[in-house]
Amino acid sequence: MNRPSTIIFNFVIYMSMLLLAISLQTSLFHWLIGSRSTIQIALVIVTYICLYRSTTEALLFTFLASYCLGLISTMLQSISVFATMVIFLFTMFVKHQLYTSNTTSFSRVALANILIFHVVSWVASGLFEDTTPQLRPLDWVLEILITALFVKILFIFFQKIDEKTKRLEFSELDG
User: Fold this and answer.
1) DSSP letters of 131-174?
2) 6, 167 Cβ separation under 8 angstroms
């Protein structure tokens, strides 16, 4: 059984990893390699939390993640929150309708979330900003392919964190 201290400690670990990932993605990676496509670690973390935590915990984490992403990046906070909430809704639908707990399913959902995030943020930016951002589907596909190389490693890493912090998966809590 999960104790409140275990849940909070695990949440803090993932939030710290998320802040580190957002910082790396928005500053260090772009400083090192320019404005090229990079791995989307933050969205993979959000996907994991949405799939393996209760709906309430996943919603709280997703909102905090999207707010932090908007604060640290050049993206408007409102667009970041909107796009990430769309990802949350999509992931909850998949979790309750189609998802099986394995690496392949996790990879598919995580990579779909990256594409959804880009499409939704591009459409929302086009609707609500003065200047329409450039459409960059090749960059989006490259980002998905680069992230695909690391998704399995990240999934195993997340499971190890849950194991070390004695945090049960959401699927174990149901049955």
Assistant:
1) SPPPP-HHHHHHHHHHHHHHHHHHHHHHHHHHHHTTPPPHHHHH
2) yes
Name residues whose C-beta falls within 8 Å of residue 102's C-beta, 6 or more positions apart in sequence.
Answer: none
CA dist., res. 78 & res. 88, Å (int): 15
For residue 103, the Cα-to-chain-centroid distance in whole angstroms is 16
> Residue 174 contacts by C-beta under 8 Å, 6 or more apart in sequence?
none
Walk me through the domains of the chain, giving residue ranges and CATH numbers: 4-174 (1.10.1760)
Give me the phi and psi of 83, to 5 degrees please. -65, -40
Give 10-residue mean pLDDT values along the chain (175 residues).
Answer: 79 93 78 68 95 94 91 84 95 91 92 95 89 84 90 94 79 43
**pTM, entire model:** 0.89
